């Protein structure tokens, strides 16, 4: 995989003074898309993607995920804004920019009677690349499709068709791979296999941007997470840092005797009774100077509340995502 070292034309980054600097492999600035009916699908979206990272774009249905990807890939023309791919303007240098990108859509657009090997080779030729049987063989073997190379697409299982979409996207050796809901509707085994494939592509230097409804996918694979809602990017953060900043921990106390209600002396802790009064749950901020656990345990003892076990649980990325979207 050839390394892409993008630079902005004339050494300029959009909306900045001239400087000598290396640009991200993908940079989106003030991108907007309003359809003819007046619906605004994207609202001043700005985003930088670094080379070699795995970036997960999360958002509810209709948030703008697919519109954003389609616009970057040249399938939808933006109303305003700019897109640079490896330094190429995606609007004025469309061919150069598009050749840097591989797109794995949700649906298989290929004719069902085409042979697996032929359709992957054809995808390479669409981008003006010279035939390279060794490269096609390597891709098909990596995706466990080599034995199916002479089979018609209609004979493939759903999982194999999903692998074929990846093979077609990789045929012209792109630097950036977009995965639009890569494991939607597949079984758990294939989902984990796709995670493995993404990891191997990253090791080879491919920059990967994925949209997903499966929060565990982002938690498993992503270096950074972006959240889009109602056409706006509401947060971009490194996954670990996001969980550190916004994560909450739960302290669950298994009570010796069930409670009907929480004693008034414990009101300041905002405790919750669960499991028919057999469990007491305390939520605390991991970033606070003090968690309040020590004083809670002291006050529990003074209130005569006894427990025989306790455990802590960290918020998941899904908890954080749901919280962010609900705030939006």
From TrEMBL:
InterPro entries: AAA+_ATPase, ABC_transporter-like_ATP-bd, ABC_transporter-like_CS, ABC_transporter_ATP-binding, P-loop_NTPase. Keywords: ATP-binding, Hydrolase, Nucleotide-binding, Transport. It is an enzyme of class 3 (hydrolase). It comes from the Bacteria. Its EC number is 3.6.3.-. The keyword Nucleotide-binding applies. GO terms for molecular function: ATP binding; ATP hydrolysis activity. Residues 26-255 form the ABC transporter domain. PANTHER family: ABC TRANSPORTER ATP-BINDING PROTEIN. Belongs to the ABC transporter superfamily. This is Daunorubicin/doxorubicin resistance ATP-binding protein DrrA. It comes from Roseibium aggregatum.
